[in-house]
Design goal:
two-stranded antiparallel sheet, 4 helices, alpha/beta
Amino acid sequence: MDELKDFIRNIPDFPQPGILFRDITTLLKQPTVLQRTMELFTKTCQEKNLKPDFVAGIESRGFIFAPSLACQLNAGFIPIRKPGKLPGPVHSQSYGLEYGHDTLQIHQDAVSPGSKVLIVDDLLATGGTAEATYQLITSCGAEVIGFLFLIELSDLTGRTKLNNVPVHSLITY
């Protein structure tokens, strides 16, 4: 799926020195490339026999892909949000960042026990955000059947944190 790599812009030293940022906005602004990306996400789910009841998208760039994919898979969409964005009772999960901590939330009634959930985001790096999302979903009694990312930074070994759940990425660096 290297066909998409040409549409990812590399921005050195962002957001801080020493980081090479993989910018997906250059992919998103081209309708045919965005459509191809969604086709590849759907094809991956079909080939891997992923049949979720729900697709969970992680704020914010997971929201770009997850709702459309949910429609293609005849599944519901679950937003995984930062604190204070969801009304009503929520489950919260804090996780470590390189410098500090962050928190993600899900509605307590987002999924029923036994539901099958596919987690989608734009990027897998260290795995902290994806791992926190896994913990949120499973705290509701649901089963995470897979992770799907546009980009995986393999040298950061984020997939090792994801509880042996299948990880699928369209682009690997």
